[in-house]
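quick one
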Amino acid sequence: MKEQIAKIKAEALAAFEGTQAAADLDALRVKYLGKKGELTGLLKQMGSLSAEERPQMGQLVNEVKASLEAAIEAQGKKLEAAALEHRLKREAVDVTIPGNTPALGHKHPMYLALDEIKDIFIGMGFTVLDGPEIELAELNFDRLNAEEGHPSRDWSDTFYFDEDSRVMLRSQTSPMQVRAMDTMELPIRIIAPGRVYRKDEVDATHSPMFHQVEGMVIDKNVTMADLKGTLNTLAEQLFGKGTVTRFRPHHFPFTEPSCEMDVQCHKCGGVGCPTCKGEGWIEILGAGMIHPRVLEMAGIDPEKWSGWAFGMGLERTAMGRFKISDLRLIFENDVRFLEQF
Ligand code: DAH
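structure w/ 3,4-dihydroxyphenylalanine:
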């Protein structure tokens, strides 16, 4: 029996030492010291021993039991320490590793150009207005002297919301002129940037949604010279000193006289290239002296007051400002393009 005890002890100690996890150690405790464990089994066999042997063996078993318990405790501590060390290693933060820089976006080039345009006009005493994209045909057309039957009112050109063609997606920012005249005190100096919508197919120069910046001045003794002076100042500040502009006669229902302003092509310098379609010039806005009837409809006396207005294509202006050759680049949102600004 003595040998048996010694054998169990040696076996148990070796097994304890070999454990890697607390759960394994616990299983071994049950195996050797549990109620049905090997050592307990020996105690049960003591009945077969002689009266002298019994206390000796009892003592021996108890000693072995104590030393196994001590070994389990020691191994348990060792495992705990190892687990802690492992966890600390795994969770360690190396504060010297460079961090991940978050990728920050930035403004779209068209809005960069718009910011510059706003700054230029604010510097000249203009107020910036914002207005609805869903507009009444009354403001988009009637109040701007574009009567029933005007081609731009056609269903093939304009997005209407109703059968009666009364509510629409604005086709121009010009209704902001009417909104300003209806709500502001004279004299008025405003610009109004925003989206406009027309039933156009997408190509290199067209999109069913694009942006305009409307501008309007109403004051006493305002003339075409003020219009030209202001818009030439805009062109020089936006595109650089010495920028060449050209004013051509045109027709708009809400201005008389009317004109369009071209800027010499930024790509070819006026020689003619694909960007300006061989013209050497790029049209960026329509303008004119506000038609007396438009002033009258707003309750403004055209004998006392006069005004000028313009409507500028923002995409085209941004293309000129940043020398972009294709309108589609503005809308495609390819980051390789956008990152260049
Ligand atoms: N609304 C015109 C368009 O979309 C542009 C325009 C022309 C605006 C003359 C004006 C203006 O204010 O006076 O084509």
